[in-house]
Amino acid sequence: MTTRRATAEPRWVRLLLTAVALGFLFLFLVLPLIAVFWEAFAQGAQVYWDALQEGEARSAMLLTLMIAALVLPFNIAFGVAAAWAIAKFEFRGKSLLTTLIDLPFAVSPVVAGLIFIILFGAQGYLGPWLAAHDIKIIFALPGMILATLFVTFPFVARELIPLMQAQGRDEEEAAVSLGASGWQMFWRVTLPNIKWGLMYGVILANARAMGEFGAVSVVSGHIRGETNTLPLHVEILYNEYNQIGAFAAATVLAFLGLVTLVAKTIVEWRMRKETEMLTAELPPEKTELPPSVATERP
Amino acid sequence: MNKFSSLLLAAGLALATGAHAQSNLLNVSYDVARDVYKDYNPLFEKHWKEKTGETVEIRQSHAGSSKQARAVADGLEADVVTMNQATDVDFLAEKGLVATDYAKRFPDNASPYTSTMVFIVRKGNPKGIKDWNDIAKPGAVQLIIPHPKNTGNGRYSYLAAWGYALKQPGGNDQTAQEFVGNWLKNAPLFGSGGRDATTTFMQRRIGDVLVTFESEAELIAKEFGRGGFEVVYPSLSILAEFPVAIVEKVVDKKGTRELARAYLEYLWSKEGQENAAKNYLRPRDPEVLKKYASAFPPIKTFTIDEMFGGWSKAAATHFKDGGTFDQIYAQK
Amino acid sequence: MFPAAAKRDGVLPGFRLGLGYTLTYLTLLVLIPLAGMILFTGQMSWGDFWATASSERALASYRVTFGASLGAAAINALFGLIVAWVLVRYPFPGKRFVDALVDLPFALPTAVAGITLATLYAENGWIGQHLAKLGIQVAFTPLGIVVALIFVTLPFVVRTLQPVIEDIEAEVEEAAATLGATRWQTFTRVLLPGIFPAWLTGFTLAFSRAIGEFGSVIFIAGNMPLISEITPLLIISKLEQYDILGATALAVVMLVISFVMLLVINLLQWWAASRHAKSRDGDAPADAADALAIAGGRP
């Protein structure tokens, strides 16, 4: 990054803003996180480690990873398609469409689960038909995937829409007028432009998919070792007076939520290295790399 | 959708339907029952193997009792349900999944063990809390309970206080409502569940008395140590029964009726009763109770049937929208 | 709902594909399930529906839910802007680590967040003991609900603003500076209009997510009727009594209120975006000059 003397804030403003930002994050983010780890390690690392070795905790982890892996591709495809149509074109009803995309956020997770019970439950609209054909949707994997898709629905799209809108149409239009096909334009112009926004969307959706409790809880059936995801397992452990186990499992979720972020950091780092080699310029941030790498290791 | 998604769906369906074709049983149960059944299941598996030579796998599901009942009604394929309040089994009977006379199909009102509501107070009992009326004195103490409308634990506490007030000289529904109203005024908050109320009382050190199941006191000692609290037995409390039932529709479909019946009946065996006692639940078997008498001090209790004419009636009077709980809070 | 003969601007391809896929997916996953839910309440009489939706407890819970959500979203909007700005623009030690932490509120199960926050803000907690000296009680009051909601919706504003701030072209600011604008003028008249749509998006997302949040709130709210009961708790309460219709009725009320509020915010956002777009055609220096001129700044 270049230094921008003419366009930078005075030093005291920068310090003040940095202090405010860090203070806010410390109070509302870091302190709660420290408290979670504090509880998880209350009786030492060995107890923490044992809690994670338990069979049910492991199967819950696997299930959580599987659901996130199945849900993300759908959300990415939808997010890109929706953002493309909404940000690059003008049509009537656009605000309505955006609002409908937002709607799953405002639906309480409990209600989100209830919706699928109303549709697919034994007393629901499709229940009798599904039972007659011996197809299980709720209290099985498909229902849990549907519920997770629902609660993570808007993330990628909503992350991309304002970004694509801010970028405008000029670059794509230039590409097309120079004879690029639709796909070439997408891969070579659009995707490189939106990659960070897309990454943030995926990170958020992934974290939320793994951490989701309310909706999945309604459609899971809570069968031990089978349909318990990690957040459900956490609650059960807590209710059984196994606080260490519960908080230990929660820290695992925190680490899993970071996996995509670590990937992002690595990509970013590599790209920066490449530019560095090209420009032989040393950006001021270079010294800060080690702490972020440290987040990879639990 | 595309090919990829239908492929995934198919894989998911295969996973969901094909996983458990062998002889197995799903026990859908309430939250804190895990320890009881974690110990009980191997006992039964061994018993069944000895008796029939068959290997059986017991699967467990735990969550809030009412939530579990709804899940079973919505298609969770439970062979047996083991709940912590009769309303939840009544609901399943109403839906035709459980026999309407389920309470008579097993001994002791189909409840293999019981518990009761007791007080947990700070060490040395600084506020001198001995009985329900000590908690109802306006502003004298702070009471911690889970939400009386939304949780089984809270409902039992509420009904215990109500029953105590009814049994006082000159007690009637009006005096009881007044008593419980005063009692609730001392509650600064409602926990989201039994466990949450315990954390608030023990870890956050809010309140002077926590009302909870007798069996929970031992779990509290396990998590927080014995040093910080005392258990107080009131002069009169409620008998909490934990009804079990066979889910008729499912066992007929799966052909597991015999197994399910044996599984529940074995809860009344010496082994089953001992297991309950070891998990701090009062066994029905008088001999086993005698053996573990030190863990279960005698206490006068009333049942919900005798005091309120059954769980369904109690729930309708007190916890339905516009019931006595709502009336108490509407008056404010 | 959306006219098939939508106006196609320019030469860009993929409008039909993008919109078609969006509408299909949206219909299958969101519209049909939500319609199913609304249809389900059709089993209730209008009178019953109204009685459930407008009971004293329900009205109080709407106030608590929407009030706390608005408060949390506003606080996150203000501080989220500062955090995003600092994370993009200013170097400081450990920046990447802090950046990585921002997403954690999503990954942590909401119940764990609620339990932890209640413990932190209780009178003997790390934060609560200091607040208690000032006579402020957070845990088990409506204020506690706001704190929980700030935590669970914290990533939204930061993460929607970050890519947009990263995307601001340096020329725009340089041009404004060359034209004699002060830094504050450049920020309010040139930069802010550019990031405003994203900012509003972040606010909207935080707000709507807060409305539905349940898992963390119930642990810190105290759940006292009329004071700190949120609407999702009333829904659960109805489900506990096997009143599924009543629960659905409340859910539909929440859905309608949320829909209207979101629609208003989104209309506002498109209005702001198109206003900004008008000044965006042409190259960057002209853009900055336009913006300053429109805003009545120094020519």
From TrEMBL, chain A:
Q: What are the alphabetically sorted keywords of the record?
A: Membrane, Sulfate transport, Transmembrane, Transmembrane helix, Transport
Q: Which residues cross the membrane?
A: 12-41, 61-87, 99-125, 137-157, 198-223, 243-263
Q: How does it sit in the membrane?
A: Multi-pass membrane protein
Q: Which SUPFAM superfamilies match?
A: MetI-like
Main subcellular localization, coarse class?
Answer: membrane
Q: Which domain of life is it from?
A: Bacteria
Q: Does the entry feature the keyword Transmembrane, yes or no?
A: yes
Query: Which InterPro entries does the UniProt record give?
Result: CysW_permease, MetI-like, MetI-like_sf, Sulph_transpt2
User: Which residues, by range, are in coiled-coil regions?
Assistant: none
Where is this gene product found? Answer: Cell membrane
| Domain called ABC transmembrane type-1: residue spans | 61-268
Looking up Pfam families in the UniProt record yields: BPD_transp_1
- Keyword Membrane (UniProt): yes
Role played: Part of the ABC transporter complex CysAWTP (TC 3.A.1.6.1) involved in sulfate/thiosulfate import. Probably responsible for the translocation of the substrate across the membrane.
Q: How does it assemble?
A: The complex is composed of two ATP-binding proteins (CysA), two transmembrane proteins (CysT and CysW) and a solute-binding protein (CysP).
> PANTHER family per the record?
SULFATE TRANSPORT SYSTEM PERMEASE PROTEIN, SULFATE TRANSPORT SYSTEM PERMEASE PROTEIN CYSW
The name this protein carries in UniProt is Sulfate ABC transporter permease subunit CysW
Which species? Aromatoleum buckelii
UniProtKB/TrEMBL annotation, chain B:
Domain of life according to the entry: Bacteria
Q: Give the principal location in a single coarse category.
A: periplasm
What are the alphabetically sorted keywords of the record?
Answer: Periplasm, Signal, Transport
Query: Which positions carry the signal peptide feature in this UniProt record?
Result: 1-21
The record ties this protein, via SUPFAM superfamilies, to:
Periplasmic binding protein-like II
**InterPro entries, per the entry:** Thiosulph/SO4-bd (IPR005669)
For the keyword Iron, the answer is no
Check the record and name the CDD domains matching this protein: PBP2_CysP
Provide the protein's localization: Periplasm
Instruction: State the family named in the UniProt similarity comment for this chain.
Output: Belongs to the prokaryotic sulfate-binding protein family.
Q: Which NCBIfam families did the record assign?
A: 3a0106s03, PRK10752.1, PRK10852.1
Q: What is this protein called?
A: Sulfate ABC transporter substrate-binding protein
Q: What is the lineage of its organism?
A: Bacteria, Pseudomonadati, Pseudomonadota, Betaproteobacteria, Rhodocyclales
From TrEMBL, chain C:
Q: Please report the stretch or stretches of sequence annotated as the ABC transmembrane type-1 domain.
A: 62-265
| UniProt-listed SUPFAM superfamilies | MetI-like (SSF161098)
Q: Transmembrane helix as a keyword?
A: yes
InterPro entries to which the protein is assigned, alphabetical: CysT_permease, MetI-like, MetI-like_sf, Sulph_transpt2
Query: Where in or outside the cell?
Result: Cell membrane
Q: Which residues cross the membrane?
A: 21-46, 66-88, 100-122, 134-158, 190-211, 217-236, 248-272
Q: Looking at the keywords, is Repeat present? A: no
UniProt KW keywords: Membrane, Sulfate transport, Transmembrane, Transmembrane helix, Transport
Q: Which Pfam families does the entry link to?
A: BPD_transp_1
UniProt-listed CDD domains = TM_PBP2
Source superkingdom: Bacteria
Instruction: Specify the protein's topology with respect to the membrane.
Output: Multi-pass membrane protein
Q: What is its main location?
A: membrane
Q: Would you identify the family this protein belongs to, as annotated?
A: Belongs to the binding-protein-dependent transport system permease family. CysTW subfamily.
Tell me, in a sentence or two, what this protein's role is. Answer: Part of the ABC transporter complex CysAWTP (TC 3.A.1.6.1) involved in sulfate/thiosulfate import. Probably responsible for the translocation of the substrate across the membrane. Part of the ABC transporter complex (TC 3.A.1.6.1) involved in sulfate/thiosulfate import.
Task: Identify the PANTHER family for this entry.
Answer: SULFATE TRANSPORT SYSTEM PERMEASE PROTEIN, SULFATE TRANSPORT SYSTEM PERMEASE PROTEIN CYST
Q: Which NCBIfam families match?
A: 3a0106s02, permease_CysT
Q: How does it assemble?
A: The complex is composed of two ATP-binding proteins (CysA), two transmembrane proteins (CysT and CysW) and a solute-binding protein (CysP).
Name of the protein: Sulfate transport system permease protein CysT
What species is this protein from? Aromatoleum buckelii
Q: What does UniProt list as this organism's lineage?
A: Bacteria, Pseudomonadati, Pseudomonadota, Betaproteobacteria, Rhodocyclales
